[in-house]
Design goal:
It is built from 1 helix and 3 strands, in the order βαββ. By secondary structure, it is mainly beta. A 3-stranded antiparallel beta sheet has the order 1-3-2, with no helix packed on it. The radius of gyration is 22 Å and the shape is elongated.
């Protein structure tokens, strides 16, 4: 079986960067279903609590796929399709 060609990764422009304290983290917003495909990148942020050995907040980046790029026009040397 020959390998399938793969498309280059589509960029996911970030739509928003939000900080949430761990006590008020919006689980439904971050982990819940969405109407369209999306990406959520979650990382630590805010103040570091040395006694607890953890950050007190999370940073969340919300992103959606970029729209597809338009197809280039056919080159003059391309054969024309007949209807």
């Amino acid at each position: 079986m020959s390998p399938r060609p793969t498309a280059p990764p589509s960029p996911s422009p970030s739509q928003a960067l939000r900080a949430f304290t761990k006590d008020n983290f919006p689980n439904d917003l971050v982990y819940g279903p969405t109407a369209t495909p999306g990406l959520r990148l979650i990382t630590c942020g805010g103040t570091y609590d040395r006694d607890a050995h953890e950050y007190l907040s999370n940073l969340v980046v919300f992103a959606e796929p970029a729209p597809p790029a338009p197809s280039p026009p056919p080159s003059p040397s391309s054969p024309q399709r007949s209807a």
